[in-house]
Amino acid sequence: MTDIVMDDAVWADVEEGTEALLQEWQVAEGDSVDAGQIVAVAELVKTTHEILAPCSGKVTALKVAVDDTFGRGAVLAVIEG
After folding, report:
1. What's the pLDDT score for residue 77?
2. Who is most buried in 20, 34, 58, 72, counting CB within 10 A?
3. 3-class DSSP state for residue 60?
4. Distance between CA atoms of 53 and 5, rounded to whole angstroms?
5. Is 60 exposed, middle or buried (0-12, 13-18, 19+ CB in 10 A)?
6. Is 56 exposed, middle or buried (0-12, 13-18, 19+ CB in 10 A)?
7. Count of CB atoms within 10 A of residue 24's CB?
8. Low-confidence residues of the chain, pLDDT below 50?
9. pLDDT score recorded for residue 81
C-alpha cells in the first residue's frame, strides 16, 4: 500500500497552515495507474500542481474530495501494487 501525497517540494516556500484545494481527480477508485501518471490536480497559492502516482498499481481509495482543501502531508489517495 502506497499513499499519494502532494510533492513536498511544492510546499517549501508556503507559510505553515496554508492549505491546497483539490481541483480534479483524473482517476477513480479501482483504476490502474502507472508510476508518474497524473492522478489529480490541485491549487496551492494560486498555482496549479499536478499530483503524480508514486508507483504503479490500483487506486483503492480516494481520501480527499474535489473542492476540498488539504494540508501538507495529507494522504490524498491510496495505491496497492
Report:
1. 98
2. 20
3. strand
4. 9
5. middle
6. middle
7. 11
8. none
9. 82
The residues near 13 (Cβ < 8 Å, ≥ 6 apart) are none
**H helix or E strand, kind and range, residue 25:** strand 20-25
At residue 11, φ and ψ (nearest 5 deg) are -90, -5
Kind and range of the H or E run holding 20: strand 20-25
- CB of 43 closer than 8 Å to CB of 15: no
Its sign, for the CA torsion 11, 55, 1, 49, is positive
Q: 9: which DSSP letter? A: G
Q: How many CB atoms lie within 10 A of CB 45?
A: 13
Give the contacts of 15 (CB within 8 A, at least 6 positions apart): none
